[in-house]
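Records of this kind hold a single protein each, on a pair of labelled lines. With that in mind, the following record should read easily:
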Amino acid sequence: NMQTGHCKIDLDSSDEFENGEDPEVLWKKAPPVFEEEEDIHTSTLVEISDTKPLINSRDPRGINDTLKVTFEDVIAEPVSVRSGDRVWIWSHALFEVSRVWIYRAVSVLLAIPLSIITGLLFALLSCLHIWMVGPCIQCVQIGTRWLQSLWSIMMEVIVQPLFTSAGRCCGGFSVHLAKE
C-alpha cells in the first residue's frame, strides 16, 4: 500500500473490488491531486518572462470554442448498425492521435511564418488606423458637428413626439385570437 495526499493507492490488489463497484466509478470518486511541479519543457527564460501565462492559457477569450471537437462529435453509430468493439476503440484512438499529431506537424510548419505575416498585417492596420483613419474621422466629426446638432434637434422635436403619439394611440388596441 502506498499513501499519497488524500488518495490511497493499493498496488497489491486483485481485479475484485471490496464493494463490487466498477473500477471506473472508483477512479472518478478519487479526489484530484494538485501538484505544483513545474513543466519540464519550460526553460528558465520562460519562467521569468511575462509570457508564461500564454503557455498555460492559450485561448483565454474562447475565440476557438467551435474547434473543440472530439471523436463523439464527429463519429456516431446508431443503435441499428454497429461496428465491432475493437474497430470502434481503434478508430477512436487513431482519430485522436492523428488529429493531435497532424495539427502539431502543420503548426510547426506554418505557425512561425503565419505569425510573422499576421503580426505584419495587424501592425500595418494599426498604423493606418492610428495615423490615417482616426484623424480623418476626427476631421469629419469636427466639420459635421453642426449637422449632428441639427439631426439631434430634429429627432427630439419632430420624430420623437410623432412616434410617442402614435404609440399612445395604438396602445389601446388589443388583439384576441380565438380558435374556431
